[in-house]
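Reader question, answered in our methods column.
A reader sent in the components of a multi-part assembly and asked whether the whole thing could be modeled at once rather than chain by chain. We filled in our standard form and ran it. Here is what they sent:
COMPLEX SIZE: two components
ENTRIES:
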Amino acid sequence: MDDRILQIIVSAIEELNETREEKIPTDNVLDLRLYGGDSGVFESMHLVGFLALVEEKLEDEFDVEVALASEKAVSQRVSPFSSVRRLVGFAEEELRLVAAPR
Amino acid sequence: MKVMITGTRTGIGKALAEHLLAAGHEVVGCSRKPGGIEHERYDHHQVDLTDTTAVKALFRELRRTHGHLDALINNAGTSVMNHFMLTPEQTTRRLFDLNFFAVLSCCREAVKLLRRSEQPSTSIVALSTVAVPWAIDGQLAYSASKAAVEQLVRVMSKELAEHGVRVNGLGVPPVSTTLTRTVPRERIDGLVGRQAIKRMCTTADLCGPVEFLIGSQSAFVTGETIFLGGVN
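And here is the structure of the entire assembly that came back:
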């Protein structure tokens, strides 16, 4: 797993925490449920804002154009946005795709 | 305000850019070819808006150089006037690429910069046409693409309200630009004759409504497409 992706996700959460009353815990962050179920920390609107922030940070860190709203994201049985662990894996794959020669 | 306008090389986009610059705003413009506006507060970018990766790269560059946007005006567009039976499918697809899909990708990327604005309410404006409510024959592809834009305005206004972004449309009757120069005079006269205000729309007629839609006076207006000239 690419530590830089995890760091980016943590920094996005920390950035959002600056304006949130109810802070999102960043300890044991890989297992943090982002969306869905009883424990998801984001409503759908906030998830959109969070993913936009992650997308920007990924682009800056890896110097690529990447969209987290890919066909693959919406077609997966378990959403890649459901937990941090899944999001890291999904972002790794998307970055590999945009880095591959076309 | 820092305003981005697509399609600023000629016509409506250029006129809007010049008007907003004269009003003291900062303007970011773009077109496929080099721009023609020289102004200290104007920043031009050459880009093919139908290339999603290029659009993402442009907005990433804007984030680096400008930090934020206060408004996006989706003006770039094209038209085709032909009987649908004589319009090649590829022509229609290319038209949708610019008139609809490019608007969608510009909005998607602009939202990230609009969220960084310090304005209490930021704004997206998209241009539409009388060809939608009038269902003008010979303009199926064009009017269908703009009908899609009007629906984008309605839905996006709901999806972006919580992000503090308003989304509105401006429906224009025929304006004297490169887009209408190939339309026969009698056809233009016929369309102008259907308007409540029976004169040709000018680019100056768009400036006030656009300024209203991107400004704080329309802070409670979203999801609407306002038509000029009295077409409904």
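What stands out: The CA atoms of residues 15 and 29 of chain A lie 15 Å apart. The mean pLDDT of chain A is 88.
Send us your own complexes using the same form.
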